[in-house]
């Protein structure tokens, strides 16, 4: 078993959400169920456009004082502004927090000290914590390499208002609750799921040498089969057309690439 490592995630920041309407307010906006969030629990979610495209990813943690939103640091101000726009008369306070975001990977929460939240996406991603005074034993780059090894996409892959959350695998990574009530972008998201019109998925690809440029075409013969997203030498995420990659010889810039199916992606998605 690998020794757990702790990294400070400087690319992430925290928003504290308090007030009697905090859960109800967020539940009406986010793709994940928030009303039933229990103390000590963390949920992964998305904030979408009304048309159903993914704006921002968020983790929502329930703490004694209220809720914490774990968001991309570069987008925290924009997220605060958008949430404030939706606030209206809700009894909610939204405040930027200076709490540090930490990741413990791979790890078992039941073997760790209090303050760690199990990552709701995959057990192998370990746990996250906020504001703990813990020394780092790894870098954020180490954590990103671990995430990429598992084939889990991240913010650099979906960007802002570029793709749909199902294409970014939010439905497979516990980022969408299809049984909850309405949320922003819910109609398009539910329709894609209900009709099975999921043509594209973010999946990892493997290759020899350096990572192709972001946006480089993945070809199945002469047909466009997708595009390369973020990555590192030998491995990257790609947004791929499911109907063109099955059994196909894929190339990027003339180099052979293969899809490395993660074990958490159901066979029905890959067929």
Automatic annotation (TrEMBL):
Pfam families: Beta-barrel_CAF17_C
Coiled coil: none
InterPro entries tied to this protein: CAF17_C (IPR057460), TrmE/GcvT-like (IPR027266), YgfZ/GCV_T_CS (IPR017703), YgfZ/GcvT (IPR045179)
Domain CAF17 C-terminal: 200-266
This protein's UniProt keywords: Transit peptide
Protein name: Folate-binding protein YgfZ
